[in-house]
Structures are given as C-alpha cells and as structure tokens.
Amino acid sequence: MNHLHFEGLLLDMPSPGRHTCGCARVTSTPAGFLQATPVSDARSDLLLMPPLANGHDHVRGVRPSALGGFDLPLELWLAHMTNIPPVDPYLVACAALGRQALSGVGSIMVHYTRPRNSAKLGEELATVARAANTIGIRIAVAVAMRDINPLGYGPDDRILDGLDASDRELVRSKLLKAPASPVEQVRFVDNLAEEIEGPLVKVQFGPYGMEWCSPELLRAISERSLETGRRVHMHLLESRTQREYLDHVYPEGPLQFLDSLGLLSPRLSVAHAIWLREDEMELLSERGVTVAINACSNLSLRSGIAPVAALKRLGVPLAMGLDGFSFDDDDDAFRELRLNYLLHRGKGFDEGLPLSDLLHMGSYGGRLSVSGIEAGAGISAGAEADLLVLDYAKLSKDVIVDLDPAHLVARRATAAHVKHLLVAGREVSRDGRLMSLDLGEVHSELNRQARRGAHDFEDWSAVSSRLQRRLRQFYEAGLHYCDQ
Questions:
Q1: 3-class SS at 130?
Q2: 177 FRET partner, CA 20 to 30 A, in 48, 137, 184, 474?
Q3: Collapsed DSSP state (helix, strand, coil) of residue 111
C-alpha cells in the first residue's frame, strides 16, 4: 500500500503496481483540489479531487447511435427508440455504469424509463442494484412512473387516426398498455426500496415527467415523499413542445401546479429544465430543487441550451447529467464537464458560470441528489472516502507556468487521466480498468445479444418511422396545445 498524507492524515492507497509513486505529500490548491507530490520529487504527479457525479442517466448499455438514434428531436427520438433489441439487463447496467466509473464517476442517478420487460420490472431493477454493488459505485434507482400519453402529448386515438389501419393495430399492441394505478405504482417503489436499498443503492420516486403523469399520480408521489422523506427525480421542460403542451394543460403554470402539490422541495431533483421562465427559476431556488444539466443530450436532441448562468445567479442548486448522450459517445464525464464549461462560462465580457461552481456542479451537486451526501462530507480520519486520483503529470506535461489545476481539469482532463477511483473507501478502478469485472467481456456479450435481436428492431423501425411522421404532423399542426 502507498500512503497519501492529507492534512496530517494518512490515506491508504492501493499500490498501482509498476506505476508506484511511493509516499506522497498532499497540498491544497486554490480551487480546493489536492495535489500529491512524491517525497523524493518536487514535481506534482497526482491530483486528488471529488469523484464526478452523474445527476441524470438512463443506463443505456447499447448506445443510441448504435441503433441510429441520433439527429432527431426528442419527441421523434422517443418513437425511434421503441422495441430496442432485448439484452440481459445486468449486462446493460454493468456496461453503462462501468464506462462511467472509468471516467471518474462515483455517483449516478438511474432514471429507469425503458424496462426490458415491464412484467419483471422488480427483478430488472434488482439487477441494476447488483451491477452497482459489483462495480462499487453509488446509485439512486429512480423508478419511472407514468400513466398517460404513451404515444405523444395528446389523446392516443387522435395520434393513431393519422396512421393506416395495420399500423394502428401494431402500435396499439406494442405501445399501449394499461398503466397501474397511482396507489399501485407508489406501493411498488416502497416495496422495491425494502428489497434493494443498501449502503450504495437508494430508491427514489421517478415520475417520467409532467406530460406523462396524471395529476393524481403526481399527487400520490408528493404525499408519499412527504410521509417517508424519499427523494423524487423527474424530467422537466426538456423541449419547446413540452412547454407548449404543459402551458395548455396547466394554465396556472406547470411549476406552480407542482408547488401546489408540495413536490417542489429539497427532496426533488429535475433533469433538463431548458424552457424555464425567470419566475419559475426563482421558485425552484426558493424551494431548494436541484436541476441536473444535460448539455450534450440537449444539443443532440435539438432541445436547446439550459439557462445555467441564470439558474446559478438565482441560487438554484445544480448537478451535471450525461443522460446517455456523452459528447464523443463514450460516457466520458470529463468531456461533458468541458462542454458545460465552454457553453456556460460566459459571452464576451459577461461572466457566466464560475469555474468553482462548474466543478461543484460536476461533483457535489449530483452526489447530493443521488445519495443525499452534502458537499462537506469529504475526507476525514476513519471515513470511507469518495476520492478520484488523476495523473497530473500526464495532464500538465507541457505546462510551463504556474496554473490552478482546476483550469487544466476543465480544459484537458478525460477518462485517460483517471488513475484511481475510490467510492466509500473501496477501489473501483485503477489505470483504466475496473477492479471487479472485465468490461471488455461485458461489451462483447452485450453486442452479441444486441445483434441477435437487431432484425426485429429493423422490422419495427419501418412502423416507428411512419409513427414519427405522424407525430411530426401532429405537433407541427399544434394539436398538442389545442382543445381536443
């Protein structure tokens, strides 16, 4: 074991084999990072920081681009991604969670919106928990709850009327299922929590979004969350089309309606929130609601750019989310951090999101919404620390002036710079490999299973393409915000 000195404490670091650095002295940097310098060398070789956190994700083991799911607006993309090839949900979870762990992510919000088999949802979610425990990272399983609008933002029959008879029957049989009642859905979440929660795994209510949940379901979730303290995670105002629909359904304002139910509280985190108005941002701030920013996903699905600087100015707690749409399609959270840095740093002489707030958003904001762990819960004597160790020598090899390492992390860091990830005191990854499983073997088997089911997906794609055309007509005609 190597020992890292931290404010008079000794941190036991697993020996990284031939890359051993011996004893290291750790000092603070202006941005709150920790630099580890080998005692025998004046050069800083390691950089210690909090692990990154993914405040919104859907554990997509098979990447959407592998199924042609790109360059579509959200509402059409959702139709395209129906009937994805059936694969082992454990492999899916291991692949998605494992890739993120290798990029330094220690906490992930799993909004489980597309079960492989709805009839066995409890078993499926138990496998997600098992994957997280195997890899050694923190997750929250936000169980997706919905009971309206399975096809689009409007009556099913109105949408189906635009399809021919054979397509109508195919869509009905595959996509229209009777939902469980609000009481049954809430009870399912309570029972699941008893079965799978543990030190690394939490269970949350996960309403899909206001456009997919009846007022009765939202009310039931709010009441149970208040009774139990269980957290809630949901989509909110991701697209302009959603904004139009929700303004029509809730003329008093969608956020105001959520507030009337008691859903707006520090127990709630929301994803996207691109189409917020100023008064709504103020309300989120007053209620302590966390907003997970999903920059690459928002760009990929043509949804827009979230008002991050305004959210920060108004005091809204922020987290970073990948949403299964990382910048280079590689689940590298550092690249997502950099995209946020470039999008929200400011324009011209107008300052946007400060670098320190960006890093807080990338690490602590997501960990809080996933696990309820406050930012101050850092490294202390005897603590089971969450810790990310970067190869700072590699990151800074050509730097010729003194720099705050935070700037290099924001501008340069990738998964390739991650040397160690520790979560709850356990080593999760070392030098580009997971400690508990072979991710290459997971991917090989996952791809084999996905290719085996590709034929059915391609056959269904002909139907889903016609459904997409119908949805485009429906939305472009404004039928989602007209009285039906």
A1: helix
A2: 474
A3: strand
Phi and psi of 353, rounded to 5°?
Answer: -75, 120
Environment class of residue 373 by beta-carbon count within 10 Å: exposed (0-12), middle (13-18) or buried (19+)?
A: middle
Question: Is 431 strand, coil or helix?
Answer: coil
Report the DSSP pairing between strands 201-207 and 138-145.
Answer: parallel
Q: Quote the pTM value.
A: 0.91
CA dihedral 185, 191, 197, 203 (to 10 degrees): 10
Q: Does residue 381 carry a pLDDT above 90?
A: no
Q: Is a pLDDT exceeding 70 seen at residue 14?
A: no
DSSP 88-109: -HHHHHHHHHHHHHHTTEEEEE
Q: Report d(CA 252, CA 99) in Å as an integer.
A: 43
Phi, psi of 46 (to 5 degrees): -125, 150
Token output for 14 = 């697993």
**What distance, in Å, lies between the first and last C-alpha atoms of the chain?**
68
The residue with tokens 């302590």 is 288
Question: For 247-355, where are the E strands, in sequence order?
Answer: 268-272, 290-293, 318-320, 346-347, 350-351
Contacts of 395 (CB under 8 A, 6+ apart): 47, 405, 408, 409, 412, 413, 417
Q: Quick count: other Cβ atoms within 10 Å of Cβ 333? A: 33
Q: Two tokens at 346?
A: 């400011």
The percent of residues in the chain predicted with pLDDT above 70, rounded, is 89
Q: Above 70 in pLDDT, residue 438?
A: yes
